[in-house]
């Protein structure tokens, strides 16, 4: 009975985490589209980039970005094409891992009774693995090379098209939606700079170099703006709560197993 109650508590916490994604998880029977939310991006260190991103579940449905060029103060404006959406793979992957955790917890009859402590431990290990993977997708953005960013479909989302000397990347970091704009300049063939292509990184620094097509390019300016997504913050909290409940249940099972296996002489 105690194990069933604890498992139910863990299931409730995981369900709560899934609701924070504002997306219906598979098998819930509620497939209403996620609402649109507008987020204003900003930074305390720069006003070179300002923008509004519209998030709908795990996709960016609209983007409106203004960039003030440092050298001549020229103002560039670019926005998503009306027929385009950009999937945020991190949110989608995290949602899928949460859905799998719920499936593992709920895929049994209500009258089902766990037979052994080992059975519960195995279930909790599987659930915790999915929850950890979900949390890691939000807390650990992908490290990308500059050519990978340049080749991303995100660069083709905008109208008017991005200038050839700009790169854009969007990602989730913890509870924040981040937008990074890289300004580039071409290295001349007779440049005396030692060309060393940069490796993968979440955020590249000025001076990072890469080769794209027949050109060698260098990052001259980096502009990063971000905003907090409240429901992502809630989801991270419930991931922590869910993992704690699962671990507490594992600890209790281990204690009881040790007690029942004890044989005094």
UniProtKB/TrEMBL annotation:
It is found in: Cytoplasmic vesicle, Secretory vesicle, Synaptic vesicle. Pfam families: Rogdi_lz. It comes from the Eukaryota. GO terms for cellular component: RAVE complex; synaptic vesicle. Belongs to the rogdi family. This is Protein rogdi homolog. It comes from Ursus maritimus (Polar bear). The gene is ROGDI.
């Amino acid at each position: 009975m105690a194990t069933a109650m604890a498992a139910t508590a863990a299931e409730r916490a995981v369900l709560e985490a899934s609701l924070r994604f504002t997306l219906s998880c598979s098998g819930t029977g509620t497939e209403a589209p996620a609402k649109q939310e507008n987020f204003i991006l900003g930074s305390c260190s720069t006003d070179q980039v300002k923008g509004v991103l519209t998030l709908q579940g795990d996709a960016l449905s609209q983007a409106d970005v203004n960039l003030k060029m440092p050298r001549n103060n020229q103002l560039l404006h670019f926005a998503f094409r009306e027929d385009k959406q950009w999937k945020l793979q991190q949110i989608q992957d995290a949602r899928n891992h949460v859905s799998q955790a719920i499936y593992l917890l709920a895929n049994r009859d209500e009258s089902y009774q766990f037979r052994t402590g080992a059975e519960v431990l195995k279930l909790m290990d599987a659930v915790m693995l999915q929850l950890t993977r979900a949390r890691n997708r939000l807390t650990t953005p992908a490290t990308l090379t500059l050519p990978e960013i340049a080749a991303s479909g995100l660069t083709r989302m905008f109208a008017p098209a991005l200038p050839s000397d700009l790169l854009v990347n969007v990602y989730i970091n913890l509870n924040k939606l981040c937008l990074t704009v890289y300004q580039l300049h071409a290295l001349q063939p007779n440049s005396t700079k030692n060309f060393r292509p940069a490796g993968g990184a979440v955020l590249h620094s000025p001076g990072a170099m890469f080769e794209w097509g027949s050109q060698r390019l260098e990052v001259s300016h980096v502009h990063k703006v971000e905003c907090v997504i409240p429901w992502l913050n809630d989801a991270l909290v419930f991931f922590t709560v869910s993992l704690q409940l699962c671990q507490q249940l594992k600890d209790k099972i281990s204690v009881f197993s040790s007690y029942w296996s004890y044989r005094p002489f």
